[in-house]
C-alpha cells in the first residue's frame, strides 16, 4: 500500500485557501477612494423649493463614479438602468450607497441601495409618493423624505420624514406637523438635521431643524436670514463645524459654516470673496470639502476642492461640458454616529409637555407696569380650531397631556384673553415622549432655572384630540 | 485493536463534549441573560467571575497599582513638581528638566493637596483618609513630621506671613487653623458642607472656603451652597455667602491684583423633571466670580455651550498677569482657557437684575472662552509655573502630568510618572465613570452626581412615569458590589442591568455602553470604590460607651417594657452585619403620595453618617429625623418606646458603622483602591 504522507491531509485545506483567494481576486473592484457624484444636463436653475422638483429630485439626473487617481479614465455611469438618480449617500463602512431614483419617466421616485463592490442595486421603498433624500442611520436603518398628504382637510401635500430598515421593513413616520422636510443628514451625535419649512397657515422660510431619529425632541438648529434658501444637505466636519450651501436673497449661493456647539450664532460665509455660485459640498480630506462650483450663472457646475481653513478654492477636479456636477461624495469609510435610544412606546397614545414659565423671557423685568401684560392662560391651537384653553399656575408653569403625533401650536393670553405671545411654531410629540421647555423665550440658548414647576405637583391637563373635539361637538348638536 | 479503542475513546469524548456543551451553553446563556437582563451579552465568564472577583490572587493578577496624580505644586524656579499620587499614598518629586521622578515619599492615606512654604523648603501634604498633614523637608526629601487635623483634610493655604496653615476638613465641614510654630491646631472654624477649596487674597486679608454639597433643604426649595468668607488676619468667620442654584464648588483662586476671586461650580437641575438632556435640562457647568470691590457681586457664568458641555470643572488658576484663567474640566478631558478681561467687561455691563439670567445662558461662554485644550484622562489639579509660561495638569487617570505651553496654547509632551502602561478592565471602568463621553452632548458623567464615587446629597425628580412623581435621593456607590438589588425600588438585580439599556434610555440618552465598557464599569463599581475610613465616629475601631449602648438597642429583641419586638421590626433583621442590609425590599411606611406603589430596597448602612439627607426621597435631613419625624408608626424599626437619650445612642452607633472590613482592619493601615 501507498504510505500516506503526514502532509496529505493539508492538501484539501491548501486547495480551499487557493480557491478562496481566487474567488476574492475575481470580485469586482470596489469604488473605494473614488468620488461618486450626481449629474444633470437639465434645468437646475429654477428649483422648486416647495415640491423639491429640480432641486431634491432632478429629472434625468444620473450618478457617476470618478476615479480621481486616473483623471483620463472615463466616468463610470452607475445608474444606467434608471431614468433619473440623485442624492447619493455612502454607508459608514464605505461598502454601499443609498440614492433616490426613478426607473422610468413619470415613475414615482424610490430609495435604492447599491453595493459598491458589484454595483448591484436593490429597491428599498415601494411607495406611492416620491421618496427622496436618504441617509444612513446607525443600526442598519435609514431616514428619508416621503411625499404625502400633510393636511387631511385640505389634501395639501408635503414631504414628511420616515425611517426604515435597509430592507424597507419597519417603516416609521417621524414628523407630524404641517411642514415639508428635505435633505436630511445624520450628525455624529445621532440626531437628524433636516431642512424644514412650515406650510400652514402660510409658507415660511426654511430652517434647519434637528430631532432624534424617532422624531422626538425636534427643535430649531439654524435659521438663516429672510428670503435665504438652504440649498442642500448639511455636512459635519471632523473639527466640529457644520457646512452647507446657502443662497441669499439675490440667489448668490455660498458655502456657509456654523459651529455645532453654537449653531444659531456662529454663521460664517466662507465664500463671500469668491465670485460665482456653489451648488453642494461634502467633506473630502482634512479641512477640505468637495464643492460643485461655477464662476458664472451661464456655465455648468464643475467639481472643485475647497479649503475650509484658508477659504481657498482649488483647481477643478472634474469638469464636464455637458453635465452639471451636483452632489459629490467620496467613497470612504467614516465614523458611525451614535445610535440613540428611543423613549417611544407605540402602545401609549399620549405624550407629556411641561413648561417652566410662560412669561420667562430673555430679560426679567422688575417694572411693575409690565405685570398687566403678563400672561396667565395658555391656548392650544390645532390645525383648524382651539384644542384647549386653561389657566397656568402662579409661577407661569403648565403641564399637559397631548395626543401623540398630533400637531399643535400655543399662544399665551392675559386675564382678558388678549394674546400676549404667539402663536408658536408647530409642535408635535411622539407616543410616550416627555418634553420640557423653559417658556416662550426669544433666546434659545437659555437653560431652565433650577426650580420645580408648580404644575407638576398636579396631574397633567389633558388636551383633547381633534377627534375628541369633533365628537364633543356632535354630542352638543344632538 | 488499539486503533479501534482509540477511536471509540475519541468518539466517547466527542459525545461527552456534545452532551456537556449544548445544555451547558444553554444554562450559561440563561444565567447570563438573568444577570444582564439582555439576551445578547457575550458569554464571557471572565466578565463576572474574574473582573469582579474578590480573591486576592486573582485581583493581584488583573489589577495594577496606579499613581493617579490628583494635585500638584511647582517650585519657584520651576525645576521641581510636587505631585500628589492619591492611589499610592505618595508625594512624587519630579525634575522638570529631565521629566524624571526623583523621589517617591510615602505620606498618609489618600493624600489630597500639596502646598509649599514661601522659601520652598517645606511641603505640606493633606492626607484625607488619615486626618493629618505630612510635613516634608524638601532639602532632604523626607517626611519629617505630621500634624493632626480635623476630618478629611483637603485644601490648604498658608497665612500671608507663613505662620499659620489653614486646612480644609472635607468630612468635618470645617477649617483647621494650624499654628506652625507649635504644630498644634489653634482653632476650628465652621464652613459649608463638604468643603475642599480655599484661597487667600493677595493682601492676606480674606480667606475663602468653598463647599461642594448644598445646604439640606426640603425638596422643592431653592438649592443654595455656602461660600465661607474668613478674615485672613483675625482668622474669624466673616460671612457665609449663599451661592444660589450651584454646588460642587471644588476650588477657588484670586487674581493677582485681588480684584476678583474665581471658583469652579456646577449648576444642577435636580428640581426639574428629568425628561430630556437637550437645552441644559440636567446639568450645567461654569465658574463663579466674586467681585472684591464695593459691589461685591457674585456672578455665575456657564462655561458650557448650547450643544456641548464641559463637565465637572475641578481646578482653576489665574496667570501671573491676571489676564487668563485655566479651568480643568475633569469629565470632558479639557482645559478651558478663559479671558479674565472679558469677564471683567461682562461684570461691568451686566446690571444686577440680569445676573440670574446670565447664569443660565449657554451663549455667554463664547464671549470669554479663548480655547478648549484636550488633555489626558481626567484632568484634576493645576499648577502654573511662576512665570506663567507652563501649566501643569494632573491627569489623574492617565498617570501623567500634562504640560500646556500657555503662549501657543498647545500641549507639550506629558511627563510620564512611570505607572503601569497596561490599562486594566477596572481602570477602563474608572475612566468611563469619570468621563461624560457616554452622556448625550457630554452633559454629565457618573461622577457628576456621584462625586468621590459617593453621592451629591441631592434629590432628583427622575420623572419615572409622570413628571411630578418619584423623586429620588442619590445613593452612594461606595462598597455596593455585594449589596444587590440596586436602585431604590430594587428592580435591578445587577449593575449590568442598572447601567444597561434602560440607563441609556432614561439617563444618559445616548448610545448605551458597549458590552466591553459595561463589563469595565461594572468591575469598577463593584470592586473599585472603597469607603473612606470612618475616622470621625469610629477612629480606633472601638465603640464609645454611647455607641455600645446604641449597638444594644440596634440588636435588641424586647422593648423598654419587656415586650417582644416583632422580628420584622428589629433593626438587625433588615440591616444585619456585616453589610447592614438583608438585600431585600421592604415596606417601611415611607411611600409618598407622589410615589408609585413600590417596596424599597434595604440600603446598606456603611458610612451612613456621610449620606444625608436620608430615606428614598431625602425627606429626612438627619438620621434622627427618620424616627423623630417620619417613624411614628414603628414600621421602620421599633423605636417609639425609646427615650431621647436612647435614640441618641442608637444614632451614635449608626454613625460609627463603616464597611464590612472596618472591624478587621485598622483604619490607619487600610489599603487604598488599586484601580
TrEMBL record, chain A:
UniProt feature, compositional bias: Basic and acidic residues: 467-478
Stretches of the chain forming a coiled coil according to its record: none
PROSITE patterns: PROKAR_LIPOPROTEIN
Pfam families: HZS_alpha
Region (Disordered): 456-478
InterPro entries attached to this UniProt entry: 6-blade_b-propeller_TolB-like, HZS_alpha_mid
Segments forming domain Hydrazine synthase alpha subunit middle: 381-442
Name of this chain's protein: Hydrazine synthase alpha subunit middle domain-containing protein
Species assigned in the record: Maribacter aquimaris
UniProtKB/TrEMBL annotation, chain B:
Superkingdom: Bacteria
InterPro entries per record: Cyt_c-like_dom (IPR009056), Cyt_c-like_dom_sf (IPR036909), Host-pathogen_enzymatic-act (IPR051200), N2O_reductase_N (IPR011045), WD40/YVTN_repeat-like_dom_sf (IPR015943), YNCE-like_beta-prop (IPR048433), YVTN_b-propeller_repeat (IPR011964)
Pfam family for this entry, one: YNCE
UniProtKB keywords: Heme, Iron, Metal-binding, Signal
Cytochrome c domain mapped to chain residues: 424-529, 545-658
Annotated SUPFAM superfamilies: Cytochrome c, Nitrous oxide reductase, N-terminal domain
Stored PANTHER family: DIHYDRO-HEME D1 DEHYDROGENASE (PTHR47197:SF3), PROTEIN NIRF (PTHR47197)
Protein name: PD40 domain-containing protein
Record organism: Maribacter aquimaris
Lineage per the UniProt record: Bacteria, Pseudomonadati, Bacteroidota, Flavobacteriia, Flavobacteriales
